[in-house]
Write a structure and sequence with these properties.
Blueprint (H helix, E strand, L loop, with lengths): L16 E3 L3 E2 L10 H13 L3 H4 L2 E4 L9 E5 L1 H11 L4 E3 L3 E3 L5 H10 L9 H7 L2 H6 L3 H16 L7 E3 L10 E3 L4 H11 L4 H16 L1
Parallel strand pairs: 2-4, 3-6
Antiparallel strand pairs: 1-5, 3-4, 7-8
Helix pairs in contact: 1-3, 7-9
C-alpha cells in the first residue's frame, strides 16, 4: 500500500504520525542546494518544526518512479532535512504533509515550478528595523546584512568625499545623506529617472550585489 499509514502515538495531543520511510524525493527535482544552505535549512526546521503546518510538503501516491511510496513534488529539501533530524524512518506529524495525488500531470509540473518561485521582494529597511543581523543571518539573509553594511559605509563616507552625488531616502529625509562614489553616479542618474529617488537603498543593494558577483 502506498505510504505507510499514520498511527496514533502514545500521547493523543500530538495527532497522527507518519513514517518518513514512506516518502522519497523526486529523482528529477530541478532544484539543488549547497551544503551550507542545507545545513541552515536543517536548523530552521529544527527550531521551527511547526512551520511545516503552514508550508506542508506536497506528495503524490501514484508516481511510477516510486512504486509503493509517496513521492514528494514540492518540499524535497524539507523532507531531506526532516530525515536528517528524525532519521530516515523517523515518525513525524502527518499534518506536515499534504496529498496532491488528485492533480493532473500538467498541474503537477506547474506546481513543482510555481511553488519554488519567489514572487516578492524584501523591504530591506523594514527588515533591518524589525530583525537583528544575527536573526537575518540565521534565516539565510546574510546578503542583505552585507548590503546594509555597505550602505552604512557609504553614509559614513559622505563627510569625507568631495565629489559624487547626494540623495536621501524619504524615510530619513533631512537626517541622512548618502554620497555615492563617482563611478556609481551615471548608473544612479539613469535608475532614478525610471524609479525615483525613494528607491536609492534598492539601487545600492543591487549595485553591491553586482560588484560582489563580479569579484567571484
Amino acid at each position: 500500500m502506498p505510504c505507510k499509514r499514520p498511527h496514533k502515538p502514545a500521547t493523543p495531543p500530538q495527532g497522527d504520525l507518519v513514517s518518513l520511510a514512506g516518502f522519497v524525493e523526486n529523482p528529477d527535482n530541478p532544484q539543488t542546494v549547497t551544503a551550507e544552505n542545507f545545513a541552515r535549512l536543517v536548523e530552521k526546521v529544527r527550531r521551527l518544526p511547526e512551520g511545516l503546518k503552514a508550508n506542508s510538503i506536497a506528495f503524490v501516491r501514484d508516481d511510477a518512479r516510486a512504486p509503493g511510496l509517496c513521492m514528494v513534488i514540492s518540499g524535497n529539501k524539507r523532507l531531506r532535512a526532516l530525515k536528517a533530524i528524525y532519521g530516515k524512518a523517523g515518525s513525524v506529524p502527518a499534518e506536515w504533509f499534504v496529498d496532491v495525488t488528485g492533480m493532473s500531470e500538467k498541474e503537477r509540473r506547474e506546481f513543482l515550478v510555481n511553488m519554488n518561485v519567489n514572487e516578492g521582494a524584501w523591504d530591506v529597511e523594514k527588515l533591518m528595523e524589525q530583525y537583528s543581523p544575527d536573526e537575518l543571518n540565521a534565516a539565510g539573509l546574510a546578503a542583505i546584512v552585507e548590503s546594509m553594511s555597505g550602505i552604512e559605509s557609504l553614509i559614513e563616507m559622505g563627510d569625507e568625499m568631495g565629489d559624487g552625488e547626494d540623495d536621501s531616502s524619504p524615510s530619513s529625509a533631512g537626517l541622512v545623506t548618502i554620497k555615492l562614489p563617482p563611478e556609481l553616479v551615471p548608473a544612479w542618474r539613469s535608475y532614478k529617472r525610471t524609479n525615483g529617488t525613494e528607491r536609492i537603498v534598492e539601487f545600492i543593494v543591487d549595485e553591491l550585489k553586482n560588484t560582489k558577483a563580479k569579484e567571484v
